[in-house]
Amino acid sequence: MTGTFTTPGPIHSVTTSQRSTARRLTVGGVLAGPLFLAAGLAQGLTRDGFDLTRNAISQLALGGAGWVQTLSFVFTGALLVAGAAGLRRTLHRGPAGRWAPALVGVFGLSFWAAAAFPADAGAGFPEGSPDATVMSGHGAAHMVAGMIGYVALCAAFVVLARPLAARGLQGWAVASRVVPVAVLAGFMGSAASVLAFTAGAGLGLLWLSAVMARLADAPGDH
Questions:
Q1: Virtual CA dihedral for 173, 183, 215, 78, nearest 10 degrees?
Q2: Which residues span the membrane (predicted)?
Q3: What CA–CA distance (Å, rounded) separates 51 from 179?
Q4: Cα–Cα distance between 70 and 40 in angstroms, integer?
């Protein structure tokens, strides 16, 4: 009697390679938020006339050193798009595997739009600017891009709650349904204080980093 024997080596190698690629791409999504916020904080503390209690981080793209923040928008967008690709490979299939990466990708693209359409001057920044902000076409486009991006991010959190729960991470799943409320509350409170907006935006970025890192480490294929 004869038979054909095969070894699982190549299949195992392909699977390992796919997981390695997914992890490398996901690192982009993990690093995007902390790097963006660190760059914004560093500039906010060193740029003349900038006040974190009065000015939004987006306004750092204005003035002579504005190119630094513009590059930060572009780089962060690239990291988020890479992270979305890694998330697709991590989740593989199902509704979450389709929708969550797409929504995170939209969030990433919104950073590129923010770079292309800078925010308006106002609240005394850049130095010499009036306190009142006069809405321009590019300023309106910047605002709309940010709104679309963060709504997509909040939707991604809700979608990601299911794979988190499926991996036994019930606390993470609950938090992913609660964080969007806090993020949107920060946006709604921006009329009273720019710090509320900054806090809401920062929370969204940091929670995305945490969730992507946790999903990359948690076993399961859901």
A1: 160
A2: 25-46, 66-87, 99-119, 139-160, 181-208
A3: 26
A4: 11
Cα–Cα dist 106/101, whole Å = 9
Tokens of 165: 């729960």
pLDDT at 112: 98
Neighbours of 95 (CB within 10 A): 11
In whole angstroms, give the CA distance from residue 75 to residue 52: 22
pLDDT tens-place string over residues 182-216: 999 999 998 788 999 999 999 999 999 999 999 98
In tens, the pLDDT along 23-40 reads: 888 999 999 999 999 999
Cβ 199 vs Cβ 188: under 8 Å? no
Task: Tell me the CA distances in angstroms from 19 to 15, 78, 221, one per residue in order.
Answer: 6, 20, 11
Burial of 191 (0-12, 13-18, 19+ CB in 10 A): exposed
Which tokens in the block code for residue 10? Answer: 């190549």
Q: For position 38, what pLDDT does the model report? A: 97
Alpha helices in the chain (DSSP H): 9-46, 66-91, 94-116, 137-166, 170-188, 194-217
- At 126 the three-state DSSP class reads coil
Burial of 118 from C-beta contacts in 10 A (0-12 / 13-18 / 19+): buried
- Name residue 45's amino acid: L
Query: What is the DSSP code (8-state) at residue 218?
Result: S
Q: Cβ distance 190 to 197 under 8 Å? A: yes
